[in-house]
Design a protein that fits this description.
The protein has 139 residues and is α+β, with helices and mostly antiparallel strands. Helix content is 54%, strand content 31%. The protein has two domains: 72 residues; 46 residues, no CATH class. The relative contact order is 0.18.
């Protein structure tokens, strides 16, 4: 990977972190665990409602497409362009059903619900502190 590309990829999280108002950044940083637990709880509840979980896997497939052939003379100048059929690989993501153990999922749901309840008060306090520390002008 070229050096400039590597530097750009390393700087990307810093650029994205600079997005949003100071209040939004403060709230986002201080409530990330609450949001993660809430997302996991919603996923587990969906699994229980369906009776199965979803998983994803990546599969490499072939696709028939058109490939471009460039013909050059001895000096490297292009003398003709042609197209031919060729096979190319592409990556496809498949979702598939996975059986669940309902008892284990219910235990997981109960633990996540208790964790979410414990984090809710702390998250609300952080939101209030962030709003107080970084007030936004009324629209």
């Amino acid at each position: 990977m070229p050096r400039n590309t590597t530097l750009a990829l390393l700087a990307l999280p810093l650029v994205l972190a600079a997005c949003g108002t100071p209040q939004e950044r403060c709230i986002s940083q201080n409530t990330s665990e609450f949001r993660t637990v809430s997302r996991l709880l919603a996923e587990v509840e969906g699994n229980l409602a369906r009776g199965y979980a979803w998983e994803e896997r990546q599969v490499v497939r072939d696709r028939l497409t058109q490939c471009r052939d460039v013909r050059r003379d001895r000096d490297g100048k292009v003398v003709g362009v042609g197209y031919r059929p060729c096979w190319r690989d592409y990556i496809d993501t498949e979702r598939y059903r996975v059986p669940i153990d309902p008892a284990a999922e219910q235990r997981k749901r109960d633990n996540l619900a208790a964790r979410r309840a414990a984090l809710a008060d702390r998250a609300a306090a952080y939101v209030a502190e962030c709003r107080k520390a970084f007030p936004e002008p009324a629209a």
